[in-house]
Amino acid sequence: MFPKKEVVAMLLAGGQGSRLGVLTRKIAKPAVPFGGKYRIIDFPLSNCVNSGIEAVGILTQYQPLVLNEYIGNGQPWDLDGMHSGVNCLSPYQAVDGADWYSGTANAIFQNINYIDRYDPEYVVVLSGDHIYKMDYNKMLEYHKEKNAACTIAVIDVPLEEASRFGILNTHEDGEIYEFDEKPEKPKSTHASMGIYIFSYKELRKYLIEDDENKNSSHDFGKDVLPAMLNAGERMFAYPFEGYWKDVGTIDSLWEANMDLLDPNVTLDLKDIYSRNPMMPPHFVSNDAVIQNSLVADGCNVYGNLEFSILFSGVTIGKGATINSSIIMPGAVIEEGATVQFAIIAENTVVRKNAVVGAKPEDCANRDDWGIAVVGENSIIDEGAVVKPKEMIDRCTEVKANEM
């Protein structure tokens, strides 16, 4: 017998993250390292804990091994209770033949039994690929005050960027009267953050109806939310003020990491929890020069580091230069190598005098510039060059004669 919970959180973490290229070749997007000691999923998980939500279902699908191993029993987030805590919920073969999650709504539908055993009043549906801090309790209180069937968190975006988002058009009291998915001419700047609170009685009904609709794509944004709106359900937008970024692209992932080094960005990491390797303190040689950077445990720094982030166990060789870059766990940058405006994935080796990426001003044509990316377990040969925008994985040969 499971104890009743007022709120259950369902965290959608099965995305492939194809726009992150080689960084998600073998791991799901929420498992991508972030900020020197975290993975992306740490943010919604920590938000749940800090909001007092004790039951969290994590819906995994694409490449779940690393993510499942990382989450474990939930102990780093204090989510290891006997009748609560965190559960990884993978697709499964059911009597009716259902298997892979066919959409965000279908993923929740396939796990109705998990939700039912807690008999909740409310369900919070979250994405596993956003960087932000939020007290879901405040959003829940707003949901209750409005007597809503569904509340959607929104953030105000510049009008010139609004066409990139799902836009919610609302009355003055916040009640939603229209969804506009990536409109050419947006009527408002209220962008959906992909954070929903549902009254479970209503959610359950619409999920079942959606499953029975053979013409549905079984997606919240495309199917379930419009169906609720068309049925006249009370739906409200909850305004959020604070840092939020969807890190679904190489540029946005790089920018969000760099934001941690910007004193004008207000994202506070002090109560974001993670599972960290046990490593000795980092070592910085007398010859090293470090400016405005984050250096995690277990790093050995002998070179020059500026406006960059080093994850645990990274080695920077003598005379190497790292600028505006993200170096993920276990990577080695050998003597004399240069890494600029780049992302170097886990356990990669950049050999002596190799060059990865470039400064924007060093490109003759601004359109030729972009973040260079090297995938995990790759080797960049001595003296080789990886150009801006280039994406390398371990099967790509990058030789010195390509300079």
From TrEMBL:
Residues 286-365 form the Glucose-1-phosphate adenylyltransferase/Bifunctional protein GlmU-like C-terminal hexapeptide domain. One of its GO terms (molecular function) is glucose-1-phosphate adenylyltransferase activity. The record marks 61, 100 as: Could play a key role in the communication between the regulatory and the substrate sites. Alpha-D-glucose 1-phosphate binds at residues 101, 166, 181-182, 192. Keywords: ATP-binding, Carbohydrate metabolism, Glycogen biosynthesis, Glycogen metabolism, Nucleotide-binding, Nucleotidyltransferase, Transferase. Belongs to the bacterial/plant glucose-1-phosphate adenylyltransferase family. This is Glucose-1-phosphate adenylyltransferase. It comes from Ruminococcus intestinalis. The gene is glgC.
